[in-house]
């Protein structure tokens, strides 16, 4: 069994008010290390056995059509064991 | 004149939209997300609400419903479509309109009577207004911030496709204070404010929204 991970992030030029809110909450709790914070989404997709090349291509397609909105977001696909 | 309103799981303003069509003098036709039957309507309204719980992204899942397949195909051939709030989000996810709606800049859900100016009166939904006319209709959303690339923004402005613009303070961080846009052809219009909630003084802040529905009816009779 493997997990295919799709990580979706807002494009750098798109305003991320949620990330900004997190960034301004951190110092209030004494965490002063963060220069900025961006918030994204992570999808974990379970497949039987080793993911095939065809499966990964399908996932790329799914990430492009459903999991992300290419107008405002970028995504990366990774495999975890 | 038959005008359809689609009910998705989680739609809220479908009944208000049906009522607005009736008040404007049309025949409202309820449509359902789960079939691709447009029931011979001559135009369609995608109402506000939280279709599919806004899961994933607002409008992202509704965009793949059977009724949207019919609507996308028809819209590409000039069929008039008005998306209000969640309907606007669905139109952007469907790529019938450019850009996307994202979280309001201050993260608040905003519910307020909003002054907007009607900037494009060359669409079947806004022909009853005069260019530059200021109207007051409610906004009520958490994800109403219109975002797009610089090139798209330039194109929208150059081609006069900004339909509504917020007047005064920008409530949600939308680029160029954009509250509504149209596609190139003008048949597809998406607006964040709710014209269907401003159709009579008993229930809304004004009657300014009714003209969206009278405009389309007039347009259809003229054909």
Describe the protein in words.
The complex is a heterodimer of chains A (81) and B (223). Chain A has helices at 17-25, 53-67, and strands at 2-10, 40-47, 73-80. With 81 residues, chain A is of the alpha+beta class. Chain A has a single domain, classed as Phosphoribosylformylglycinamidine synthase subunit PurS (Mth169, Chain: A). The model of chain A has no long low-confidence stretch (mean pLDDT 94). Helix content of chain B is 22%, strand content 26%. Chain B has a single domain (2-221), classed as Class I glutamine amidotransferase (GATase) domain (Rossmann fold), CATH 3.40.50.880. In chain B, helix 1 packs across helix 5. Chain B has 5 helices and 11 strands, in the order βαββαβαββββαβββα. In chain B, the strands form 2 sheets. In chain B, strands 2-1-3-4-11-10-9-6-7 form a 9-stranded mixed sheet, with helices on both faces. A two-stranded antiparallel ribbon of chain B has the order 5-8. The model of chain B has no long low-confidence stretch (mean pLDDT 96). At the A-B interface, helix 1 of A face loops of B.
Number of helices of chain A: 2
The CATH superfamily of chain A is known as Phosphoribosylformylglycinamidine synthase subunit PurS
Return the CATH topology of chain A: Mth169, Chain: A
Named at the architecture level, the CATH assignment of chain B is 3-Layer(aba) Sandwich
Main sheet record of chain A:
3 strands, antiparallel
- Greatest interface and its participating residue counts: A-B, 11 and 20 residues
Largest sheet of chain B: 9 strands, mixed
Record field, number of beta strands of chain B: 11
Order of helices and strands of chain B: EHEEHEHEEEEHEEEH
Quaternary state of the chains: heterodimer
CATH class of chain B: Alpha Beta
Average pLDDT for all residues of chain B = 96
Low-confidence stretches of chain A: none
Could you say which overall geometry of chain A the principal axes of the C-alpha atoms support? elongated
Number of strands of chain A: 3
> Percentage of helical residues of chain A?
25-40%
Beta-strand proportion of chain B = 25-35%
Please indicate the count of domains of chain B. 1
Spatial arrangement of strands, main beta sheet of chain B: 2-1-3-4-11-10-9-6-7
Strand content of chain A: 25-35%
């Amino acid at each position: 069994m493997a997990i295919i991970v799709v990580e979706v992030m807002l494009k750098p030029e798109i305003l991320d008010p949620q990330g900004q809110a997190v960034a301004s909450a951190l110092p209030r709790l004494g965490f002063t290390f963060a220069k900025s914070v961006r918030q994204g989404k992570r999808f974990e997709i379970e497949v039987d056995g080793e993911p095939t090349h065809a499966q990964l291509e399908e996932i790329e397609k799914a990430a492009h059509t459903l999991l992300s909105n290419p107008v405002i977001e970028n995504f990366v696909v990774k495999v975890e064991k | 004149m038959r005008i359809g309103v689609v009910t998705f799981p989680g739609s809220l303003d479908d009944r208000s939209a049906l009522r607005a069509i009736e008040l404007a003098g049309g025949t409202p036709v309820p449509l359902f997300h789960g079939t691709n039957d447009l029931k011979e309507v001559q135009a369609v309204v995608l109402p506000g609400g939280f279709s599919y719980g806004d899961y994933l992204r607002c409008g992202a899942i509704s965009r793949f419903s059977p009724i949207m397949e019919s609507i996308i195909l028809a819209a590409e051939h000039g069929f008039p479509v008005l998306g209000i709030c969640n309907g606007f989000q669905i139109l952007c996810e469907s790529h019938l309109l450019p850009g996307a709606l994202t979280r309001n800049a201050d993260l608040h859900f905003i519910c307020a009577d909003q002054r907007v100016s009607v900037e494009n009166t060359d669409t079947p939904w806004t022909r009853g207004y005069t260019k530059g006319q200021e109207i007051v209709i409610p906004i009520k959303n958490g994800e109403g911030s219109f975002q797009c690339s610089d090139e798209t923004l330039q194109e929208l402005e150059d081609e006069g496709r900004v339909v509504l613009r917020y007047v005064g303070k920008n409530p949600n961080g939308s680029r160029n204070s954009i509250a509504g846009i149209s596609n190139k052809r003008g048949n597809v219009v998406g607006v964040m404010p709710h014209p269907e909630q401003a159709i009579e003084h008993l229930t809304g802040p004004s009657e300014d929204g009714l003209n969206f529905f009278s405009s389309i009816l007039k347009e259809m009779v003229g054909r």
